[in-house]
Amino acid sequence: MTHRKNSAGPASTYWFILCAFIYLSFVPTYVVTIFAPDFYYYRAWEYFDDVVYSGASATRLWMRTETGDLSRQNLLLYQDDWPTEVSTDSLGFRTVPFPERAPTVLVVGDSTIFGSGLSDNETLAWRLAQTLNVAVFNGGRSNVGNMLKHPGLGHVRIVIEGISERAINSSLILPAGQNAPFRPLIQHTRDKYTAVPFGRVFLPLIAYRTLVRFGGDVKQFVQEGMHAPADLFLEYRNNPKDFDATIDAIAAHDQYLRARGIAYIFMPVPTKETSFGRQMGLTVDDFTENFVPKLAARLRQRGVNVVDLSGRFRKEDARELFFRTDTHWNKTGVELAVKALVADYRELLSSSR
């Protein structure tokens, strides 16, 4: 009689170990995403992108500490954190004071205007509203054309557009999709079971990223020591060949709004690079460093209201106006911008009451 060796036992064992590994690597952490998805995020900005704006969470609230972009390159170094409270309305726009009033001022722009790294009561829109006792709407992360279709903004008389100076270029044409319907930030594209990306909750990937971040600490220690001061910079160059076209594009925004009886104020948001980059050893070309003053002068010649913050930021200790481990301005920078807006255009802004 012949006997066949049974190989099912070892194979079954291997499959069991593999399944157990996958289960332990994913399922427990996946359960956390259902009940506390913000646990996997460094900052409110990313959490709202994945979870709130996809419609996967009805909470629309972040009450945790945040860390800057530089923190994720290291495990122990540059882990500056600060508590923030971030909330939005049912369409995804930042909470503002005086919700019972019809907004007469709209602030629109990029992540800086949205208030990345700031609590609701520290954003530009909130502080401007409190300073002037005017209802101000925060349209950060959207554009002028879209926001003017917002059903609750029919009484807007002034638009303030704030854009980081590194992002100002001739693509700032009249807002695209003029015939498109209003688009809220919350789109209801996913549910709570699929909102958080797989890579954020799979333990082997989390372990890999942790090792990479620890490697960043080791590299920093070898090169500069454990206590080297650090500011996060995003080096860039403005394009001189695009300058005239950029002036035309911004002036077109102004004319677009004037035709609708709405006043327009353009506010380039300073960057760390031009505010104090050379002091930190960065190479900043002359055109980029003087881009905003030249831009402001040319826009004023075209009759455009513009707030030039560059000189004001450079007169201050500019490092105190930004988050150290991030590129965005902090609440001190916001306060300086509000003071500049009020100083330059108090009469215009007050007329919107």
Give the arrangement of secondary structure elements:
Layout (H helix, E strand, L loop, with lengths): L7 H28 L8 H9 L8 E7 L13 E7 L17 E5 L1 H4 L9 H9 L3 E5 L3 H4 L10 E7 L33 H4 L1 H22 L18 H16 L4 E7 L2 H5 L9 H4 L1 H11 L3 E2 L3 H6 L15 H20 L3
Helix pairs in contact: 4-13
Q: Could you walk me through the main structural features you see in this protein, from its secondary elements to its overall organization?
A:
The chain is of the alpha/beta class and 353 residues long. It has one domain (60-190, 230-350): SGNH hydrolase (Rossmann fold, 3-Layer(aba) Sandwich), CATH 3.40.50.1110. It is built from 13 helices and seven strands. The chain has helices at residues 8-35, 44-52, 111-114, 124-132, 144-147, 198-201, 203-224, 243-258, 272-276, 286-289, 291-301, 310-315, 331-350, and strands at residues 61-67, 81-87, 105-109, 136-140, 158-164, 263-269, 305-306. The strands form two sheets. Strands 4-3-5-6-7 form a five-stranded parallel sheet, with helices on both faces. Strands 1-2 form a two-stranded antiparallel sheet. Helix 4 crosses helix 13. The longest helix is centred in the N-terminal third of the chain and has 28 residues, at 8-35. The protein is globular and about 80 Å long. The mean pLDDT is 86.
